[in-house]
Design goal:
The chain is of the alpha/beta class. The protein has helices spanning 13-21, 28-38, 56-65, 99-102, 123-144, 161-169; strands spanning 46-50, 70-75, 87-91, 108-113, 145-156, 172-178, 189-197. It is built from 6 helices and 7 strands; from the N terminus they run ααβαββαβαβαββ.
Length: 204
């Protein structure tokens, strides 16, 4: 669950808004826009948040699902901040997580991933690493989602992007690609959103 190096950046309007509203990072507004466009989160839902540090997605999701729901986050970086009572972030590697550790099949209505690799500066290497993280998140989603559940994952857009989108399309009835307004201009990340999860047949 690699994270990109954090460099001090000029605070744009999303960064200033996040500070005013008490969120750990401006990325919360990416999730908010995705939620508004695809109807990702609802009251009472159980949500798995991969690449959860520094907690802004986890906090937003916990607010949206309200006290009847629950949000479980994982990240390589240990989290020591505050979260709503219906949320927690555990330290762990997404490639080592088991279905049993996550609660077993059909444990979540939503799986979301804001994971990004530690960037190398070589675009094709970074795209390949981003794709590997995305596909791992999708793999876990397909093993822990309830029928009809939803998935959203970040991926760096590149030459193999159609294959990534098709991998989501094979298991979800509706697929949408979103580039939120809060995405930095220089970034080539997008979010692939799948709704209406269809579990595979036993033979598959």
């Amino acid at each position: 669950m690699a994270r990109s190096g954090r460099r001090r950046r000029h605070q744009d309007r999303f960064g200033r808004q996040a500070r005013r509203e008490g969120y750990a990072a401006r990325s919360v507004y990416k999730l908010q826009e995705i939620d508004e466009k695809v109807g990702l989160l609802r009251r009472g839902a159980r949500v798995l948040d991969l690449g959860a540090f520094p907690g802004s997605w986890t906090s937003y999701a916990a607010e949206r699902v309200q006290r009847e729901g629950r949000v479980l986050g994982y990240d390589l970086t240990a989290f020591r901040g505050e979260l709503p009572p219906n949320a927690e972030i555990r330290q762990g590697d997404v490639f080592e997580l088991s279905v049993e550790e996550l609660g077993g099949p059909a444990s979540f209505e939503v799986v979301m991933s804001d994971m990004a690799p530690a960037t190398s500066g070589h675009r094709f290497t970074d795209m390949a690493r981003s794709e590997a993280l995305f596909l791992r998140a999708l793999e876990l989603a397909c093993r822990v989602l309830t029928p009809g559940g939803a998935f959203v994952g970040k991926v760096f857009q590149g030459g193999d992007f159609p294959k990534v989108r098709e991998a989501v399309r094979r298991r979800f009835t509706s697929v949408r690609v979103v580039r939120p307004e809060a995405t930095r201009r220089e970034s080539y990340e997008v979010f692939v959103c799948g709704t209406g999860f269809a579990p595979a047949d036993e033979e598959e």
